Amino acid sequence: MSRNTKISIRELTKVFYKKKQSVTAIENISLDVEEGEFVCIVGPSGCGKTTLLRILAGLENQSSGRFKIERSNEDRPNQSMVFQERGILPWLTVEENVAFGLNMRHLPKTYVKERTNYFLRKVGLVKFANMYPKELSGGMKQRVSIARAFANDPEILLMDEPFGALDEQNRYILQEELLSIWSETKKTVLFITHSIDEALYLSDRVLLMSAQPGKMAAEIKIDLPRPRKLEDIRSNPEMASKFLDIWQHLQTEVQGSRL
Amino acid sequence: MKDLKNPIETEKQEWRKQQNQQRLKTWLTIFSPICLLLIWQFLSQSGLIDARFFPPPTAIISTFIDLLTSGELFDHINISLFRIFAGFLLGVIPGIILGLCMGLYAPIRHFLSPLIMALMPIPTLALLPIILIIFGIGEVSKVVTIAGSVFFPVVINTVAGVISIDSIYLDVAKNYGAGRKDFFLKIALPGSLPVMLEGIQMGQAIALLTIVAAEMMGAQSGIGYMIWTSYSAFLLKEMFVGLILISFFGYIFSLLLRALQRKLLPWR
């Protein structure tokens, strides 16, 4: 193996138990993500993608199995999450939101300021630094969320359908911006999405999950050179066939869960 | 069909129309109390209502001025305001602290909420005899009475405020490693503040209701005492001065709290 494994997950299972009924959300998930890799997880709704991410994010405990995130630096936080929507705090300004992780770690003020400004500039929100989230559009809010995660400089980034609530136009713009920041920092990213286009455009590898219980079904490598353009994906026949593969997998999964 | 030539001119007129409507609304708001006073004055002077029970506003105003110049009124206002402020703070501050603790820690909440639910329906005024026995007939007993009535809406709204914080914000705090103190100051306090302030606003209104009744029952000074003694002596003009003062202070306190709300919640 030429690269280092950054995230290793072994036989991770999560069961939800309520009123004498148990539902297995994810079952025996094992996977490795390499350092600097951008991995998308695609699967039908309710397949436990979010549960998997929440376990890695420390927001939920697994029922069995284990996972490990390789640390490169003791001062770095393990992971930071970009939430679906409503993930930024309405009572903090844009700047305070971006600085949130750094402030929670009580880092020196000048360092926080400098780093916050850098990422505000990266996402084009310098002019909005002192505004409250209520004054921002959906796309701008997700930019704040992304800037907050990158500013925190974690070992890995977890993203839970960050662009799911955006309109198509905005989604493309934010995907492009995300790739540009990512290519600079080379963070390891685990990204959940519903959108096949999004997965093909962003990732090095797409993992397909099956539903109830959520398991890893297949993986598809996307070895297009970077920087990528959306047009390249759309006009590439190989990508078109990969799109169809994933589409068919999702179709059968959805059909299967209906029976 | 009307031909609209100049688009800017058209919109300008539209804008002026809206401005005029805004002005009208402001005037209506100011006009309603004046209107009431005018009708009252007319009815009272023309003898349609008995001027002994409803003295005309002009007579009440001149009584007000007399009482002011004699200095007697100032003493009543001072002592009442002192009791309101002291009782308000004594009720609000423990209410907020206990409310935050109950909201954040479920065991405390489950332990204390039956007590609060059971004590809340008892009017503090009904407890006044007991309060007088414990705290004596001095200022402390009045302040405690007000504090007791202010405490409940504040504590209940603060708990509701903390519980109503969207769970995603708790996830964000946890994910970004917020410690206990940061969680309290950066998430729980600001997140519960809007609902908490509604409770404080309610507490303010209850404080005024309570002070008047408490001073009627067990005091030798204050606006409530003045209302009661004037009524007993059939000095209805003096009584009305007292009633109007209470309504005036209630209005001013509401305005002050609204201003505070805007100041504390710029993000709303």
TrEMBL record, chain A:
Protein name: Mannosyltransferase
SUPFAM superfamilies cross-referenced by the UniProt entry: P-loop containing nucleoside triphosphate hydrolases (SSF52540)
A single GO molecular function term of this UniProt record: glycosyltransferase activity
Annotated InterPro entries: AAA+_ATPase, ABC_transporter-like_ATP-bd, ABC_transporter-like_CS, ABC_transporter_ATP-bind, P-loop_NTPase
UniProtKB keywords: ATP-binding, Glycosyltransferase, Nucleotide-binding, Transferase, Translocase, Transport
Record domain ABC transporter: where: 7-236
Transmembrane segments: none
PANTHER family documented for this protein: ALIPHATIC SULFONATES IMPORT ATP-BINDING PROTEIN SSUB, TAURINE IMPORT ATP-BINDING PROTEIN-RELATED
The organism's place on the tree of life at top rank: Bacteria
Listed CDD domains: ABC_NrtD_SsuB_transporters (cd03293)
Pfam families the record matches: ABC_tran (PF00005)
TrEMBL record, chain B:
GO cellular component annotations of the record: plasma membrane
Keyword Oxidoreductase recorded: no
Chief localisation class: membrane
Subcellular location: Cell membrane
UniProt keyword list: Cell membrane, Membrane, Transmembrane, Transmembrane helix, Transport
Gene3D superfamilies linked to this entry: MetI-like (1.10.3720.10)
Any one of the GO BP annotations: transmembrane transport
InterPro entries for the chain: MetI-like, MetI-like_sf
Alphabetized CDD domains for the sequence: TM_PBP2 (cd06261)
Keyword Transport: yes
Transmembrane domains' residue ranges: 26-43, 84-108, 115-137, 143-165, 206-228, 240-260
One Pfam family from the record: BPD_transp_1
Membrane topology: Multi-pass membrane protein
Domain ABC transmembrane type-1 residues, every copy: 77-257
Family indicated by similarity: Belongs to the binding-protein-dependent transport system permease family.
PANTHER family: ABC TRANSPORTER PERMEASE PROTEIN MJ0413-RELATED, ALKANE SULFONATE ABC TRANSPORTER-RELATED, MEMBRANE SUBUNIT
Protein name in the entry: Taurine ABC transporter permease
Organism the protein comes from: Domibacillus iocasae
